[in-house]
């Protein structure tokens, strides 16, 4: 057992046996590595064929999303403007409705007052006014006179006397700042 060649042979045999066992274990691993390499190669080939169109589609989708976002933003902005216009229109309609209500109330109050006045005036005769109080208001512009003339007795002014008698008969004073009209609406001169 001390023979060195024997130990050298045993050592070389053990090394050879271990190498054979390592090679036996390494062969299936290498085959699996070859399959994995083929799979990676196929994946790389597929990616090189499919990835550029997919990336282009993703880029186009991004652009479309940007356009849609702008369209939605414009739509929201125009909807906001439309809501604001509707709000202004509603405000104007409310204001006009208030004005119409106020006008309608005023018209109804005016009609009611006129109706009451009409009914009251048809039942009660108008109050009689004294003619003497308005004597200076009766002026006949067709007859010339000066400021020094005495108008107290109406002599020389038959038109004033006639008008005064008519106004006393009707119960109120009638003043004619212009010559009276005949039945056709033409002025007498």
Index terms:
189 residues; mainly alpha
Structural overview:
The protein is mostly helical. It folds into 2 domains: 7-98; 127-181, no CATH class. The chain has 2 helices and no strands. Mean pLDDT is 76; it is low at 130-137, 145-154 and 169-178.
Q: Summary?
A:
The protein has 189 residues and is mainly α.
Give the arrangement of secondary structure elements.
Blueprint: H1 4-123, H2 158-170
Helix tally?
Answer: 2
Average pLDDT, rounded to a whole number, is: 76
Distance between the termini: 177 Å
The shape is: rod-shaped
Total E-strand runs: 0
Strand percentage lies at under 5%
Order of helices and strands: HH
Supply the number of structural domains.
2
